[in-house]
Amino acid sequence: MDQYNQKYNKDNSFLRNIIVGTLAEMNKKICYYNRLDNDTLERVDVPCLFSTTGQERFLADEFVYDAISNGKAIGNYESVPRCVLNLNGMGVNAAEQTNKFINTKIVREVNGKLRTCYLMTCFLPVTLNFDTVVICSNHLELLKLTEAIVSRIYKNENLFNIDFGGIGNVEAQLTVPADYQHERPTEFSVSEKKEFKISFSIEVKSFIPCFEHGLSIDEIDDMLRGLDPNADGFVEFRPNKYGKMEMRIGGVIAGYEINEYCADHIPEKSITSNTIKPLKGTEDTLLDRRTNIDNNKK
After folding, report:
1. Residues 174-188: what's their mean pLDDT?
2. Is the dihedral of CA 70, 71, 77, 83 positive or negative?
């Protein structure tokens, strides 16, 4: 089975895609160099992780019992240096919204066939705020990473794109503040961790696609699976003959009817087809109408 078409429960959350895109962008930016000798430089990349936690039973099953059964050592696997992000809030920027609904093309694979669906979509501007902590092993590392954050992120435009299952690329922007809090331990005991920390906040601006009539991406997939697999054409969400909204295949003109009156009175093709020429059977009517117009002018 094609792995590209596999769907998982995590694929229908756009906020999760924004978080993953932010982590990927931060992973590329935070790094520093160690000089080993006069001719050797070592690049140290700082991994960016998302803060997750759980109940004590879950943590024990994940990191103790599974580790023993797999023959792994039990202990602290937290690497240093590392960057940890924690989402603390999200807000909608109502003042930045321009076009409420635009026509958006969505390409989905349904029953082994690609379907192109057109839906009116509102791209709602949102802002995500992250509390960020960079953990270092010594004071020199703390200073180098602060310089890297300022030079690589603060002084540059951090634009990246987020993909959401056939909708296309949604733009996002990452910004960091001008102030950074340093935590440098001066007194500590043997049992305490000696950690140097850089604390700051991250603001990510992006858009959440909101489909017409409040449709979710799961509802769209479910309705697309119910279409005739043999029918071709793009798909729109519009009412049927009973007024019920559904996914329908076809263009703007889904069908046509022949008017018998027009078929009987269309003039024959000639070199004067584009000139004013009365239809067959309407000469007397046009003549009476012209006579009435002339009489009114007099």
Report:
1. 86
2. negative
- The answer to whether the CB of 21 falls within 8 A of the CB of 162 is yes
Domain ranges of the chain: 3-101+125-213, 269-297
What are the distances in angstroms from CA 98 to CA 118, 123, 124, 162, 209? 20, 9, 9, 20, 14
Peptide bond connecting 229 to the previous residue in cis, omega within 30 degrees of 0: no
pLDDT digits (tens, 9 = 90+) for 25-65: 998 889 999 998 888 999 999 989 887 665 666 666 666 66
| CA 291 to each of CA 84, 276, 278, 281, 282: distance values in angstroms, whole numbers, following the listed order | 88, 17, 15, 18, 14
Taking alpha carbons only, the member of 234, 121, 233, 223 closest to residue 168 is 121
CATH no. for 3-101+125-213:
3.30.2000.40
Measured in degrees and rounded to the nearest 5, phi and psi for residue 100 equal -70, -45
Q: Rounded to the nearest 10 degrees, how much is the dihedral formed by the CA atoms of 259, 261, 264, 266?
A: -80
CA distance 207 to 213: 18
Question: 179 by DSSP, 3-state: which?
Answer: coil
| pLDDT band at residue 298 using 50, 70 and 90 as cut-offs | low
Provide the whole-model pTM: 0.71
Work out the angle at residue 84's Cα, subtended by the Cα atoms of residues 82 and 88, and round it to the nearest 5 degrees. Answer: 170
